[in-house]
Amino acid sequence: MNTKAPSKAGGLLALLLLPCLQAAEPVASPEKTDTDGKPVVGVYYYPWYRGGREWRQVMRQHLQPPQQPKLGRYRSDDPDVIGDHIAQSLQGGIDFWAVSWWGPDTQTDVNFRDAILPHPDSGKLKYAVLYEATGRMGRFASPDYQHWIPDLTYLQERYFNLPSYLRINGKPVVFVYLTREYFRNKGAEALKETRERFPDLYLVGDDVFGAGYRAEWARNFDAVTAYDVYGQSVGRFGGTRKAVDFLAANYRHAKAEANSVGTAFMPTIAPGYNDTAVRRGHPGRARYFTDQPGSKEGDLFRSMIRDVAVPLLDARCGNVMMVTSFNEWYEDTQIEATSGTADPSAKDDSDAGEYYTGGDRYEDYGPLYLDILREELR
What we know:
This protein has 378 residues and is α/β, with parallel strands linked by helices. It has a single domain (33-377), classed as Glycosidases (TIM Barrel, Alpha-Beta Barrel), CATH 3.20.20.80. It has eleven helices and twelve strands. The chain has helices spanning 79-91, 107-116, 133-137, 148-160, 179-182, 188-197, 215-218, 234-237, 241-259, 299-309, 368-377; strands at 21-22, 31-32, 40-45, 96-101, 126-131, 167-168, 171-176, 202-206, 223-225, 264-265, 268-269, 320-323. Mean pLDDT is 92; it is low at 1-35.
């Protein structure tokens, strides 16, 4: 299942002893090692907002009353927004952003290059690229790899050598979206050329989805992970304990398979999902347990940290865990703070009053998810 916003068309061989992951400031130690067991937290970050009508594609704008980001309908190139996002990340104990990237001189590239990285507070975090393969390789059935090597060359020239660029074992890290569609049993020549031209590149494949992951698929990458949490958890089983247990089982198997061929595994969690304002076919899910009376906003996320991410941290990649996402508002996977001023609501502005919510309750949660992340991983 590919569950990305409409503008997205859909968004590692580690040492066993002492991973050299450069953690974000202000962490006391400049390196996190496999001996301290502390998670290194990455979030998928989207620098594509223009501050205009695109915000009508955000489900929370249809709630009654609407729920806004803490910063309102912002622009991603606004230095005040970037500074606040960095501050929120530090509040939540986040170490790095995996920044959505759609190609040279696209909006995401320009905002990353000319607004985020030059920001005076940018050095407080690390950054990697989330390579949006759907925008660069086309159809799953017949991928076009013509942009792949030139794109990596561009990234190497512009980003990889920057002090703030994320490295694992001394290698610059690139997350590649939907490798399970673009490089599973295809793209062998493109991968071979990649390793020949960029021997120091640390490739993280978005390769894990559902049960039955195989070691042979993991061989292509230094680490494997999963972007789509929804499709293999709450999307299938709703906001239930079974959804969390199913996700953990999928990941446990995938980690064992990947590790068997020397590839690392990065567990990914998400607070919820609702893309009903941008596409049909994916029922929105609550951010609490619907099968547990009295469950509160954030309980699902807290459980995923405790029962999925932390038990499956992998020292091979420096105990990296990913969160989908910091600010993917189109799919309502964000942990970015809301304004916290609106009343809870299960009603929306559709004719039926529940098209977008599905009858689930949505809280104007403020900094709750940043607080949960910090508290659980302290």
